[in-house]
Every structure is written in C-alpha cells, then in structure tokens.
Amino acid sequence: MAHAIWYCACHPEDELFFNEFKRHVSALAQNHKITIEGDPTAPPGESRSDYRIDRLARAQLLILFVSVRLTTSKEWHDVWEPICTKRSSLYRGRIVPISVGSVDLTDTPLADWTLLSGGVPIGGELNRDSAWTKAVPELRKIAEELKQIPFGDIQTQSAEAYQLTFRGKGSEAIRKLVELRAVLEKYPKTDSLEKSIQLERAHLRDRLAHSEYTFGHFSEAGEQFEDAFKIRTHIASQYPNDPDVLFDLSTSHFWRGHLYYLLGDLSRARDAQARGVDICKQLVLADPNNPEPGRSLVVLETDLGTTLQEMQLLSDAENALRAALERARDQVAKHPDDYPIKRGLAVALFRLANLLVQKQQPTDAENLCLEAVSECLNLVARDHGNLQWRRHLATARMGLADARSALGHLSLSRSDYEFAVGTMGALTLCEPGDLQGWRHYGRSERALGDLFMKEHEYSLADAAYQRAAGAFERVAAAPSPRYHRELTDVYKRQILCSPPEEYRQRVLQKLELWTKKLAELPAG
Q1: For residue range 479-505, what is the model confidence (pLDDT) as tens digits?
Q2: Measured between alpha carbons, how far is 123 from 68 in angstroms, rounded to an integer?
Q3: Cα(61)–Cα(83) distance, rounded to whole angstroms?
Q4: 217, 362, 394, 481: which could join 212 in a potential S-S bond, CB 3.0 to 4.6 Å?
Q5: Of all residues in the chain, what percent are helix, strand and coil, respectively (each to 5)?
Q6: What is residue 78's DSSP assignment?
Q7: 463 vs 470: CA distance, rounded Å
Q8: Which of 268-289 are b and which e, b meaning 16 or more Cβ less than 10 Å from the residue's Cβ?
Q9: CA distance to 91, 203, 272, 310, 336, per residue, from 267 (Å)
Q10: What is the pLDDT of residues 370-386, one digit of tens each?
C-alpha cells in the first residue's frame, strides 16, 4: 500500500510547530502509512515552489499552520488563500487548518471554518505537548475518513457513470449513480468540504434524474430534480454571492424546466428556464472569461426559445433563439476546442431553423441546418460512440429535410428524412429502454410519412405512420400529455391514408382509447 502524503504549510518562523507536529503524529503516520511533507522539508538545491507543486499534486490532505505571520505574508495571498477559495488549480482537496497562534480570521477564507482542537491556538497552551496530544485523536479520525473513497474519486466516478447515459448504457448509469448517492449520503461532514459535498449531492441527483426520465420514469426524475433544487436553494441562502453556487442553481432551473417541458407544463417550463437565464446572464457579466455560465446560457436560451415557440409566442421565441445562436458563435470563437459549446451551437442552429420553417422562411432555415449538419458531423467524428451527438446529427438532417420540403425539393428532402429514420432507428437498438430515443425515431418516421403523403404515395406513408405509431405507443407509457398527443396525431394521419375499412376501424379504436387516456392526464 502506497503512503499517503499529508502536506503541511506554515510560515518559516513557525517551523518549530511543524517539527512538533511530525513528532506527535509519528505513530499515527506509521500505522496509517502517511508521509508528512511540507515546505520546510524541501531538499537543498530544489526550489520550494517546484517542490510544493509536485507534492501538492499528489497530496491527500493539506494542513495549514495558521498564524498572523502566515496570513499576512505574501505567500498567503499568492498561494494559500487562492487554494482555500478553490481559485487555484494547485490543490482542490481537503484542508485542515490548525491555529498555532492567536489570529483574527474574520476577513480570510477561514472565517467560517472550524479549526482543529476547537480553534484553541497550540502556541497559546502552557503545555504544548498536552495541546498536541489533544489534537491527535481528531487527526486520527481524519485519517480513518480518508481511507474511504476520496471525495474527488466520487466526483470522477459520478461524471463517468453519467457519460454511460450517452453511450447506450442508461441502466448501468442508474445503478452506479444510485450506489454513489448512497456513499455520498454517509460521507463524513467537514467544514472544508461541506459545501462541495452538498453541491455534489445535487449533481448526483440531476444525473440520476436525467437517466431516469429517459426511461419514462418521470415521477422519480421529478423527485430527484426537486431534491437537487432544494439543496442548491439552501446553499445559495448561505452563499448568496458565490458564483459557483449560483451557477449550480441555474443548473437546477434548467433541469426542472426541461422536465416541465417534457410533461407539457409549458408555463412552469418557461418560468424555470427564464430564471436560469437571468442567473447565467449575471454570472457572464461578472466574469466574461469564464466559459461555463456562457455555455449554460446558450442551452437555457435555446430551451426557452423552444418553449416559447410551442406556446405560439413566435416573436419572443425567435429573440431567445437568435440570442442563443449569437452567444454560441461568440463562445466558439473564444473557445474553439470546447466541444460542449459546439454542441450548443448546433442545437441553437437547428432549433432556430425549425422556427423559421414555421414562419415560412425555409431558405434561411436550410442555410442554418446545413451549418448545423456540419457542426454535428464534426462532433460525431470526434466521438462516434456518443449517442447524443449522433441523434443531434439526425435531428439536424430532419430540420434540413423540413426546409427543403417547404422549398419543394422533395427528392433531397426524402434522402434527409431517410437518413434520420435510419440513424434514429439504429440508436433505439443501442438502448431499447430509452423512451426518448423511441420518441425521436417516431418523429422521424412521422415526418417521412408526411413527405410520402405530399408525393401521394399512400402505401409508403401508411407504412411509415405504422412504424411511427409503434414507436409512440412505447413512449406513451410515460405519463406525458405531449407523448399521448403525438401518438393520437399519428393515428389521425393513418386514417388519412385511405386504408381498408377493417384496418381503418382498428385505428379508430386505438385513437379513441388513447384520446380517452389523454383526457385522464393532467393538462399540460
């Protein structure tokens, strides 16, 4: 078993406390396989800065010997204060401050932290050996806690598990995320990690909820999203000006808005998305160079525009979508290797194109979709295993088909629809339980059927509508008025294909059954 590194930082004049600390924790260090290192132990001839960078990168724990000498030093402001506020990439793990002298921490990042041994300065004790002896049990407890899964590993595993959702392994993603959620719920609470733990609890719930709703588990997803929102709202009340906390809160507004949209509750979707937009705009103004709020703002404005479009507020929808597109272009220019923002650009392009087709501007829509297809092809080429990016490519081709169909270019449109149908159908085989995937497949088949109707090829249209109905029947298992309406809409299209009377009656019976089920659902 490799030795863990506990890195100690102190002012040069406080080195005697560092030496006392090493002596009193020697047994603990031996039993728990801990190597105690720090600036005072830098080898001769090696700069303290280089030594520090190397050791901090591998450290399991950072111990700060806090004194007036340390907190008023240049090194405090250049190195340790940024680390305590997570503004430095040198070290982002757990920190334990030990007071070795009376010091006022009111205006420092440690103001709200609990110092070891209740904050009683080691140097203020008449018997320092006794003071260190009292501190050792707390350090032993910390050593035991660190034997658990490191918090950073939980974050990494959570992100890796979530990526399985986009690779056709949603069931595996849910299983792993549930396991990690249970681990995090029992994770020891510490002052230095408390906020980070709470934020990660919210992240886990978002990721789990996303995985759940792809399978049509809307109730479970809603509970997880609401729990995450409550956690973030509570943290925001404690840290009202913390940009990381506010950014996370905007994430909750996005997810809740997205679920409301899927459930057909457009007013609540719009309100949640608008609140998320407002937060991200504030964060972008405060720090224009931080790509995260700008990236999220693109997604939120795109979703808001889509919601407004469905509410038939077309002017407002176009404003939101054009703002998202302009912002995405600006972000891509600043961060050309940021693939998530390129995804945001592609989605903004084909969502705006969809609106322009509705507003009878198919030429502009075609140009936007050609650009969207190009962006999506680049994404897929970079990571073909990402099912989400392949689905975006198919959606962009559908948008291109819609525009070309409106322009009367039916043969070109047909090849685009057939590409979308083939891609969406293949993706359902990757994750058969993904209802969102079946919905996208159903929509592509329905669009192809509409094209066949334009060409008066009724038998081909009927076959496409039958496949669409089969897909939507799977999706309608989820309690969403939107999904039920899409199914009944396909049944109505089938009837227009002039099928034989017996077949027509069967479709009418299905239409009556699902119309009744739709009426029993809460209005969206």
Answers
A1: 778 888 888 888 888 888 866 777 778
A2: 12
A3: 12
A4: 217
A5: 75, 5, 20
A6: I
A7: 11
A8: bbbbbbbbbbebbbebbeeeee
A9: 44, 25, 9, 11, 35
A10: 999 999 999 999 998 99
